[in-house]
Amino acid sequence: MTTQANNGGNAAADDERMSTGTKVGLVVAGVLGIAFVAGLILAAQTSSPSAAPGTETTTTAASGTTVPSGPGIIHVTLSDTQGLGGPMTLVADKSTAPAGKISFVIKNTGTIEHELVVLKLTGSQTWNNLPITDAGDPPAPVTSGADKVSEANDVADTGSNLKPGETRTLDATLAAGNYALVCNIAKHYGLGMRAGLTVS
Ligand SMILES: [Cu+2]
Q1: Which residue among 63, 71, 137, 157 has the highest number of C-beta atoms inside a 10 angstrom radius?
Q2: Centroid of ligand 1 to alpha carbon of 92 (angstroms)
Q3: What pTM was computed for the model?
Q4: Does a structural domain hold residue 147?
Q5: 188 C-alpha vs ligand 1 centroid, how far in Å?
Q6: Are 8 and 43 members of one domain?
């Protein structure tokens, strides 16, 4: 069928078909529009709970990223600048915390892998002067070649190591007492990866 044949005898009928087509198009557009608006409302409702995570325990850093904070949240930064060839650091933003659930928000800003191990201190032990008597994985006492502290009183740890740049949260329920926060990868405690925590 050619255009010319259509124009020849059924111009009115063509107009009517076009008109019907236009109406159908408008109805479809209208339905799609309603569906779109409904989708927006649904999306807004779905996202609203996550818009305020942690409510009063959350602050917004200058960078715009959300940083959890509160008495039970301890930020721990694990770092080094030259691996085993230099000093290493384990810095916690708190040295005291209330007993109960503690969330350690851990970041490895160093050049090699690190971990966090929470050790309960006993007797006269102090976090800064634990004897380096162990080696191996898991650490066990050795008569020579010791490069780790004992993990006999390990109450929480990250398990696998954090890669450079990695951030991880470790939740632990801590009773009142004194603790050492350490990285117990071979030699790291001795190179400086230790801090104290008093829970009360
Ligand atoms: Cu380490």
Answers
A1: 157
A2: 14
A3: 0.69
A4: yes
A5: 5
A6: yes
